[in-house]
Amino acid sequence: MKPYYDEDGITIYHGDCRDVLPNITADVAITDPPYNVGINYGEANHDQRADYEEWCWSWFNFLPQVRAISPGIANVAVWCRIAEPPFWIVAWHKPAAMGRGPMGFNNWEPVLIWGKPRGSILVDVVLAPIVPDTSLNGHPAPKPLAWAAGLVTRLVAPGDVVVDPFVGSGTTLVAAAQAGHRAIGIEIEERYCEIAVQRLAQGVLQFEND
Questions:
Q1: What's the CA gap between 84 and 210, in Å, rounded?
Q2: Rounded CA gap, 121 and 151, in Å?
Q3: How is 4-39 classified by DSSP, letter by letter?
C-alpha cells in the first residue's frame, strides 16, 4: 500500500488498519480507538457496532507486544474479555474536564497497557488537561498532545517505531516526532489524514502545557 504521507520518519496510511497492520513492523502501539458510543467520525468509521468486541480483536491481534489503548471507562471490562488482562492501567488525569459520570465530573480515564514498558520509569499518571487547540479543528474527539507525549515517554525506547492504527488528528504522531521517534499512523477517514499531515507540516511539536 502506498503511504498517504511519508516524511522525516513519520508515515501515514489511508485505509483500514486491519488491512495495513499485517504489512508493517513496529515496536510500540499507542492508540485511541472508537469507544462504540455513536460519535460521528465519518462515513467509513462506524462508532456503533453490534460486533464491537470481535472487531477490536481483529486488529488488536496485529499490534506489537507493547500496547497502550485508551478504551474509555465503560469499555475496561469489554477489553478484559477481548484480550488477556492488561499488564497495568495508567490513569490519564484531565483536571477540570466537564464530562459527567455516576460519581460526578469525570476527571480521569484509563489507559490499558500490555507488555513491558520500554521508556522512562515515572509515575502511572499522565497529566493532560483538555485545552483549546485550533490545529485539532475538524475532529470530533481529539486527545490532548500531552496525553500522547506522556505515553510516548513511558513506553517508547530510542530507536523504537510507534504505530497508531486510529491516527485521527495525528496526536500520537506529533508526540512521537517531538520525541525523535519514527512513527506509523493508519486512518480510514481521509479528512483526518489531512488534518494530521497539516499538523506535522506546521511543526506542532510543543507540549500544550509547556
A1: 37
A2: 11
A3: SEEETTEEEEES-HHHHGGG---SEEEE----SS--
**Distance (Å, rounded) from C-alpha 103 to C-alpha 86?**
25
Give the type of residue at 46: H
Cβ-proximal residues to 99 (8 Å cutoff; 6+ apart), any chain: 105, 106
Laid out side by side, the sheet with 66-69 consists of 5-7, 10-14, 182-187, 161-164, 28-31, 66-69, 108-114, 88-93, 125-127
Q: Where are the alpha helices (DSSP H) in 21-163?
A: 52-60, 76-82, 145-155
Read off the pLDDT of residues 139-180 as tens digits, 9 standing for 90 and up.
667 789 999 999 999 999 999 999 999 999 999 999 999 999
**Cell digits of residue 167:** 491516527
* All structural domains of the chain: 5-201 (3.40.50.150)
